[in-house]
Each structure stands twice: as structure tokens, then as C-alpha cells.
Amino acid sequence: EIERTKELILIPTTCGTGSEVTNVSILELLERHTKFGLATDEIFADAAVLIPELLSGLPFAVFAASSIDAFIHAIESFLSPRATDFSELYSREAMQLILTSYQKLYKIGKENVGELMETFLLASTYAGIAFGNAGTGAVHAMSYPFGSAFHVPHGESNYVMFDGVFQYYQKMSPQGKIQKLNHFLAQLLNCKVESVYSELDRLFQFLLTKKSLRQYGMKENQIPEFSDIVMTKQMRLLRNSYIPLEKEDIQKIYQTIF
Predict the structure, then answer these.
(1) CA-to-CA distance for 53 and 185, rounded, in angstroms?
(2) Using the 8-state DSSP alphabet, how is residue 208 labeled?
């Protein structure tokens, strides 16, 4: 049993994890080629302090992966079966802050990202509150074994999974809550509903070049192995998937991004 004996003050130094407002910490198990979430109320912060100046030296690649991770926290928690009116408020606000800031960054240039860092930091915390209540889903579940095996930064590995997972959601349940999400995103992105995911991909690729699984060194015959790991080790996250996913579904998604 964990015993809390000290005051815990958490100060984030990236704009991605949101862990300063959650009870979740991630452990990377190198020998098992995967990551596990440790969730216990004893690691809730007594206070979370946001200091944008601490992010002033953040390398752009780290910023890009971190902020994309925060966006995926927000969008996955919005679609989670555990989402509530409360968590959705934070999901929507985080998505709005991140996407409007990406659009500004596209106009002013990457070298001026420091002007927007306070907004990204706040958005990351909002997304942390959202997924701390509603959870993340299949994107995170599928990214953990891949990221661990090929030493890919967490936000980047989520980005690799994102489009494949959400296109699969769209294909399998287009009339569900994803319809509401897509209309919300279309307003933010000022695009047609059917262009939402291509527009998101355009913004993400401005920040970070997307690669296929094979470009990281993954072999096609590893897809069943990775799918097994997801089904056996990441059910905590898969339970928050927008739609129920079986091993065959996971394999199909991996195949589309291979």
C-alpha cells in the first residue's frame, strides 16, 4: 500500500502529458516492449503550478510531439464512453486552444512558438483534466507497445496511430458521437466536415513529419504480435475506445498505417 507522507507540488516542463492534474504515471517496461499506466490517487498533486517560462528552451520537436499528445488526450477523452458533460468541457476547450494556436503558428512561423507557449501549456492541463476523468482510448493503447519497441517519443507514436484509428472509427460508426466531434472540428478548422482529418493531418505534418510503421523498422509479420500485446496489456485503455475493438480490428488499423 502506498503511503503519502509529503506534499506533492507538480510543475510541468512540457505541454503534453497533463500529468500534473491526473493520478496516472507511465512506466516503460523495456524487456516486455510495452508501457503500463500506474494509476493511484496518492500521486494526485496537492498543487499544480504552470510556469510557461520553463518551456522556453523546449526543442521544437519535443514541443510538437508534446502538443500533439495533448490534442490526442483531448479528442480521445471526448469520444470516451466515460466522458461526461464536465469532461467534455475541458476536451473541447483544449482542442480549441491547440488547433487555433497551430493555425496561428502556421502563419507566424515555427521560430515564434514561444509566443504561444502559455496557451499550449494551459491546453495541456485542460486535456489532462479531461482524460483524467474520461480516459484515453485506442490511439494510446496501440502506441504504447510500438513506441516502447522502437523508442519513439510518446506524442510522436500517438501521432502515427491517430489517423488510422480515427478513420476506422469513422468507417465503423459514422453516425455516433464522432459526428458531433467532426462538426465541432470543422468549425475550428474552417473546413468541410469530410475534410476534417486531412486538415488535421496537414497541421500535424507542419509540426512533425509523419512516417509509416515500416519506416521505424517494424516488420509486417510483427502486426499480430503487437495486436496481442494491445489486447492483453492495454485493456485499461481499450475500454475507453469509441467503439469496442477486437484483435482483428487492431490488426486492420496497424495494417492501414504500416
Answers:
(1) 30
(2) S
Q: What is the pTM of this model?
A: 0.93
Instruction: Assess contact for 132 and 21: CB atoms under 8 A.
Output: yes
Contact (CB, 8 A) for 72 and 16? no
Please give the biggest Cα pair distance in the chain.
53
Distances (CA, A) of 45 to 129, 136, 211: 12, 20, 36
Q: What is the grid cell recorded at 95?
A: 482542442
- CA–CA gap between residue 154 and residue 156 (Å, rounded): 5
Which three cell numbers, joined as nine digits, stand for 213?
Answer: 510503421
Q: pLDDT by residue (tens digit) across 24-72?
A: 887 777 776 667 677 788 888 999 999 999 999 999 999 999 999 999 9
- Measured CA to CA, the distance from residue 212 to residue 206 in angstroms comes to 16
In one-letter notation, the amino acid at residue 137 is: G
| The pLDDT value given to residue 85 | 97
